[in-house]
Design brief:
Radius of gyration: 24 Å
Strand order of the largest sheet: 3-2-1-11-10-12
Oligomer: single chain
Helix content: 40-55%
Distance between the termini: 21 Å
CATH superfamily of the largest domain: HUPs
Number of strands: 19
Number of domains: 3
Strand content: 15-25%
Length: about 600
């Protein structure tokens, strides 16, 4: 696997390099570069390699949609930037003008990172490779560590390194003679005024769009495979792959030998329904132990979403069966309103409709140090509801975040918070929510989650883990035409009261098995807490990393003592994700600093 890195200095001297991500891409490691009179770099899929476009003449590259050739170099760069769509990343250097142009797609599927170094700029496809450049300060950001525990990742435009920034989704950067400007080239704009499209020809239209998106994603591959969790989105991709291909789809699924986590029954139902070839793998605790060190090398900064483990093993399973390109269902929830929290939030939004005197009385009761009868089961639920519902959106979505439940003072070591703005994550989410080009709460949430859930989290998880397994991955739901279609659905076609993805669910009724349409969403979760609370190699590994984290002085020693002293064992499902965040961070810091 290779990452690209480039730089331009104040004199107009430029260079670029391809960096081995498993060896040289570490802070302090030497970066070998070679000069070029002018050049461009583009990513358009593949297992992570950048395509170099020498700009001495007009060149072409597959960028954006597979098979869509765009000109690059010289006067053709403007056409390249305008025509690029789908998933791509672009970097172009014009030394004669001392200019760099960087651009990522709507969802930053392939991120670009950069650092300003004096009058020059260093940029690359990984924050770690940028920080490794001798012109860049590789110091770790305390603020980013704090935000990692809030979001399970470091949200763009920040990175784990103080000096390194990330382009946000749908943006481009121009660096011209020492001056930097960043602007959006795409922002979602929601059309909310139309009537419901359920029961109209639009239902057939969206399936046609999905078939076209799947066909486009599969173009250029001999025979792609598909992730299959047994949910609506991955099942739709498999169905469309069946409809547009000449051979049965190849599907790959992950299971867990733990109650409430295994969904292979649904995946097998879908595979049988569409006549697909089906392969499955049961992830074990031993797989987690083996993968942890690789995660610290695969990601350019700490990444704490535990579903990286099943994502990797699903991609690895596909690679073992000769697949070089996988199709994933990511994006469907955020486009069409499929996450459970959207329905729950409607219940909390009803609180604002209560008469003001009733709300004041409830809030006085809930605000008491010991609410009368608050220990009774029914009233305990009412107490939780009131305390939750009185928090406005989007902060309401974070009520159960560890930073809010445990409190930052309990989570972090003494003195750590002195260098941190604890309100920054909430302010950033509020800015996304308020700045959305939408009026309804659901579309504002979706606009926010285009960045926080898709760009910062899910896409990076799947792209990096597929790259680690040696396969390409593409996301049909994020084809421009499918995204644009979703922006024109009225809000109540996405979420109506507690009913989720109303329009899309209606569109696939009769197309997908009924059991899949009615199932409760889970996806590729990981029973990490349950495994870590049981004797064995994983528990030993986890406790070793927790001990190392205790000595590092980021997480409070008292909290780590509580976790190892019985808290994890008593409530493994709740505290398991927190332990995962701690050990992933510790593993990454041990490997990279």
């Amino acid at each position: 696997m290779r990452a690209f890195c480039g730089w331009l200095d104040a004199s107009g001297e430029a260079a670029h390099t391809a960096v081995d991500m498993l060896a040289a891409e570490r802070p302090g490691a030497p970066i070998e570069t070679r000069g070029a009179p002018g050049w461009a770099l583009a990513l358009a899929g593949g297992p992570g390699d950048a395509t170099l476009l020498e700009a001495e003449g007009a060149c072409s590259v597959q960028i954006g949609r597979p098979g869509a050739a765009c000109a690059a170099g010289g006067e053709h760069v403007a056409a390249l930037q305008q025509r690029a769509d789908g998933a791509y990343a672009l970097a172009r250097v014009d030394p004669s003008q001392r200019r760099v142009h960087l651009q990522v797609d709507r969802f930053s599927t392939y991120p670009i990172y950069y650092a300003l170094a004096g009058d020059g700029i260093v940029f690359g496809s990984s924050p770690r490779v940028v920080a490794a450049h001798p012109r860049v300060d590789p110091a770790i950001s305390e603020q980013s560590l704090f935000e990692y525990f809030h979001a399970t990742n470091v949200p763009a435009p920040a990175t784990i390194f103080r000096s390194v920034r990330a382009l946000e989704p749908g943006t481009c950067l121009d660096f011209v003679r020492g001056q930097t400007s960043v602007r959006a080239h795409w922002e979602p704009e929601f059309d909310e005024a139309g009537p419901s499209r359920i029961g109209t020809g639009a239902q057939a239209q969206v399936l046609d769009l999905m078939r076209a998106a799947v066909a486009g994603s599969a173009r250029g591959t001999s025979r792609p495979g598909a992730f299959l969790s047994g949910g609506i989105d991955s099942s739709t991709v498999v169905g469309c792959l069946r409809d547009t291909g000449r051979e049965p789809p190849r599907t790959f699924s992950i299971g867990f030998a733990v109650d409430d986590y295994d969904e292979l029954g649904y995946a097998r139902t879908v595979a049988q329904h569409f006549g697909a070839e089906y392969q499955q793998y049961y992830v074990t605790a031993a797989d987690v132990v083996a993968l942890l060190p690789r995660l610290a090398r695969a990601f350019g900064q700490p990444f704490g979403n535990a579903s990286v483990v099943p994502a990797f093993h699903c991609a690895r399973l596909a690679a073992e069966h000769g697949v070089t390109c996988m199709l994933a269902g990511d994006g469907g929830d955020e486009l069409f309103g499929g996450n459970e929290r959207y329905g729950r939030d409607w219940l909390f939004s009803r609180y604002a409709g209560l008469p003001a005197p009733a709300r004041r009385a409830l809030e006085a009761w809930a605000g008491a140090a010991a609410p009368p009868l608050g220990g009774l089961p029914v009233l305990r639920k009412a107490l939780s509801y009131v305390r939750h519902a009185r928090v406005p959106l989007p902060a309401r979505l974070d009520v159960f975040n560890y930073l809010n439940v445990l409190g930052a003072a309990r989570l972090f070591a003494d003195g750590f918070l002195d260098a941190v703005d604890p309100h920054a994550p909430a302010a950033a989410r509020r800015a996304l929510f308020d700045g959305a080009r939408a009026h309804s709460d659901i579309n504002r949430m979706l606009a926010m989650e285009f960045k926080t859930t898709l760009a910062d989290n899910d896409l990076q998880k799947v792209v990096v883990m597929c790259r680690e397994a040696g396969v390409d991955v593409r996301f049909p739901f994020l084809a421009d035409e499918v995204v644009d279609f979703s922006l024109h659905l009225p809000p109540h076609d996405k979420v109506s009261r507690t009913r989720l993805r109303c329009f899309f669910r209606a569109a696939v009724t009769g197309y997908l098995p009924d059991a899949v349409i009615s199932k409760q969403k889970r996806g590729f979760g990981l029973p990490f807490g349950i495994w870590a609370s049981q004797p064995g190699e994983l528990r030993e590994c986890v406790f070793d990393l927790l001990g190392s984290a205790r000595r590092r002085g980021i997480v409070a020693a008292a909290l780590i003592d509580d976790l190892t002293g019985g808290l994890l064992d008593r409530e493994p499902r709740y505290y398991g994700p927190l332990v995962w965040l701690i050990i992933v961070l510790e593993s990454w810091l041990s490997e990279n600093t």
